[in-house]
Amino acid sequence: MTLVKWGVILVYKFKEKAMPRSLEEINKSKVQDLCREAADYWEKYRDRVPFMVNGFEVTKRSRITSRRGVNKNDVAAYISQIEGLLASGELSSSPQVEEVTPVETVETLQSKVETIPNDDEEISYSNSEQEKLDIAKKLYLSTEGKDGLMGLREYQLQLCRTQKYFLPEFAILVARARVIIENYANGKSQESKAHPGSIQKVRVEVMKYVEEMVNSDVEKFPPVNDRTLKDTFDDFDKAVRGAFADIGAAKHRLNKERAEAREDDVRAVKAYPLVSWAVDTVNNLPRRDISQMRKLSAKWKEVAIAVMLLTGRRQSEVMSSGVFTYVDDSRIIFEGQLKRHVDELVAPEDIPVLGKAARGVVDAIAWLEFYGKRTLPEAREVAAIQKAAKLSHDRCSRYIAETMETLANLCPIQNGKEWEVMENGKEVNKFKGHLTRQIYAQICSGLFHDKHESKKRAFISRILLENRDAAQSYDRDIEIVDMDELRVLCGSLADE
Hints:
Layout: E1 2-5, E2 8-11, H1 23-26, H2 31-45, E3 52-53, E4 56-57, H3 61-65, H4 72-88, E5 96-99, H5 109-112, H6 128-141, H7 144-147, H8 152-162, H9 169-188, H10 196-217, H11 229-243, H12 245-263, E6 267-269, H13 272-283, H14 293-296, H15 300-311, H16 315-321, E7 323-328, E8 331-335, E9 349-352, H17 358-370, H18 382-406, E10 420-423, E11 426-429, H19 434-447, H20 453-464, H21 468-471, E12 478-480, H22 483-490
Parallel strand pairs: 6-12
Antiparallel strand pairs: 1-2, 2-5, 3-4, 7-8, 8-9, 10-11
Helix pairs in contact: 2-4, 6-10, 9-10, 9-11, 10-11, 10-12, 13-15, 13-17, 15-17, 15-18, 15-19, 16-18
């Protein structure tokens, strides 16, 4: 119901349901129903809560309902965000009065609205996790009659029928797994030839999905000569690893060559300007104002990078898995370590924060969450944490990398080298996000007041949550040369 008088419109809004649902509960609905629900919310609240996908604002309802460049996780996250804001009262559900200029004096929208620059090019990203899951399903569920390939499940059924230990189809499946996985990895590479490390990464992730399906089915198959479906999978996994042995050897060789080349390409840098910028960034966050969400949240990339630098955490730990708890000005408790090939949660750890900016770091994490930039796991379990982190990486990595390049001038090189170099005929900027972790580790090493090298190595290993060998590799790209200035800014550190 509306009442119009001299340009004043009274808009009566029906009360929304007050109890927000969990993401898990929302995801139980069909995707088409969620899309319609999200589109309805978007039409009501888009001015205050825009629907952001891959860093861009959705501007048409059809973009949501048709799912063009939008996946179910995006839709569910938007619904959850709206319901949470409604429940907290930040989106008022009571009648509001909006003053509207009389028609005779209305100016064009273009002239009244401040133009917000947006240099992000809109790109639709593929869902790489779904694609790898599809490969796993093909390797596990395919049937020879329908797909021309006997999947692992049908192979186990044949073992049950014949009561044999082994069938020739096993070798065919292993060979096909190599071809399918390698072709997928190459197809994702811009050069149509993936790095051996990328191929191995796809193999590991695909086989994890296969293992999940095996674990859910293992009780459905009787053992064959005391061998279960899980035993058959273990044989398959081992055989597939063997099929990729040459890829593993190539990865090792390239990594060794890269390490040797890095030794001759270390950049001596001053890190004080960058650390000082990061401290200022987290200590002077843009205000939280949902009505100005698009404008104020535009700094999310700088805020994320500042937290990465001051805490030494990885991008996905800052943007997804990490839990940051204030201890004092120089320390936080960090939980949510992301570590490859680890299938259990890593215990929370007390870590230092550079620049005595711990309060600012905790506030920055809350700021990123307020504006919906973090992709939070549905549960504090390894699988849920890894799933959310991968989704966050797909959404954020490009923008973090681009923003890092704009900050290179805050880390000036002192030994005549450059951040921009030519590689394979292309100009490449070497100032990447992984350097924030190296800078953090080197500064913490320089600030550690105990001269005992063994204690220092143990300290760096602990705060990075890495083994000692990995922790000592964080000097491979840069060497910090302005530790005196950094000591003034950060103080000294000790292994508490």
